[in-house]
Amino acid sequence: MQRSTSNRTLSRKLSGISERKQSLSNLRNRISTVSIHDEDERIASSASSKSNRMRKKDQIEKFIESPQPLIDTSLSQLRHTILCEGLPESCPYRCYIWSILLRAAPIESEWYSGVVARGEVNATSIGSDSKYSKVGEKIKNDAFRTFQSNEKFWAKASKEEFIRILNAFAWCAIEGKEMDKVNLEESDLNDVSPYVQGMNVLLAPFLYVSRSEPQAFTLFYNLMMIQMPRYVTPTIHGTMDGVKLVEIVLKSVDPKLAEHLMKTRTSATLYALPSVLTLCACTPSLDELLKLWDFLFSFGVHMNIILIVSQLLLIRTELLNAKNPMSLLRQFPELKADKIIKLSLSITKSISDELNDLIVRHLFDDSVTELIDEYNP
C-alpha cells in the first residue's frame, strides 16, 4: 500500500513548488532569447567571445566569494549564466556552485568524523539479526563496480572514500540522525532506506568535484534527503513514477516514437530506469555529465525526466528504423550535454503546466502516483 505523507511534511515540501515553478517560468521565458551553441560553434567563436567567457568566469568566482543581499535575484543571475555560458571545463569551483544551487550548507568536520567512526554497517556493528546487516557488504561491492574503467575519475577519488561516505549516510538513515544544519521531519528519516541501488553512481560525481570528503557527503546527503527523497525509499516509488513520466512526456511530444516503442514492447521500465535512478550518471562521459548536472541543479532535479526524453529524440531515426529498439537502449549513446539541454528547453516549452507539476512533485510527494497513473496526454 502506498504510504501517505503527513500533512505537516507535505505542506513543508510543497512550499518549495512555487520557487521551482518560478524557475521553470523564467527558463521558458529565456528559451526564445538564449542560444545554446553546438560544439562546432564554440570552436569557431571569436577571440572576443572567449574573452567574454573568461570575464564571466571571474564574475562567477566573485559571486561565490562575496555576500549577496538579494539571494533570489543572485541565484537567478547565476542560473542564467550557467544556461548561457556554462562553467569552464575542469572548473575548480564547481563544488561551490553546486553547494549554492542546492543550498547545501557546509558541515563541521567533527560531526562527519563522528559518524564515520561508526565504521561499516555490518553484522558486527549492528548485529547479525538486523535487516541492515548486509548494507556494508552491498556498499563495498558496488563501490568496486562504480566507473570501473574511468581512470580519470579514480585518479581523484578512492574506494575508501566511497565506502566511508555511503556507510555514513546509511548510519544516518538507520538511526534517524539529521545531518548538522539540516532540519528534517521525523517521517522523512523513517522513510529513507540506508542504501538503494544507484546511490553509488549518484555519489561519484560529487566525490569527483569536491575538495574534501565531508563536502562530498554534504552534497550527496542534500540530494538524497532534500531534493529527491522518494528515490531513496525502500520501494523507490519516486523512481518508478519517474519512469512512468518518461513515457508520458515522450507520448506528449512525439506520439509516433512512443507508439513504436510500445508496439515493439520497449518499456521505459527497461530502458529508462537506470537513467532515472542515477540522474543520467550511468551514461558516459563524466565531463558531459557534469554539464548536465550544472543544468539540473540550476533549474531543478525534476528536469532529469526531460533530459532522458531528449536523449531518445536525438536517436529518433535509429529507434524508428529498429525492429528491436531495446538493442539501442541497453546503453544510451554517450552524452552530448549541449544538444540534450537545447532540446530539453524546447520540450519544456511544449509540455502542459499540469504535466510539469507532476514532474516537479514526483520527487517528494506521494500523492502524485495516482495522478500520474490517471494522466492522459
TrEMBL record:
Tagged with keyword Isomerase = no
Which GO BP annotation is one of this protein's?
negative regulation of septation initiation signaling
Record protein name field: Rab-GAP TBC domain-containing protein
Q: Which PROSITE patterns match?
A: TBC_RABGAP
| UniProt keyword Cytoplasm, yes or no | yes
Q: Where is the Rab-GAP TBC domain?
A: 88-300
Taking the first listed entry, what is the main subcellular location of this protein, grouped into a coarse class?
Answer: cytoplasm
UniProt keyword annotations, A-Z: Cell cycle, Cytoplasm, Cytoskeleton
GO CC terms in record: mitotic spindle pole body
UniProt-annotated location(s): Cytoplasm, Cytoskeleton
Which Pfam families did the record assign? RabGAP-TBC (PF00566)
- Family, per the entry? Belongs to the BUB2 family.
Q: Which InterPro entries match?
A: Rab-GAP-TBC_dom, Rab-GAP_TBC_sf
Q: Which GO terms describe its molecular function?
A: GTPase activator activity
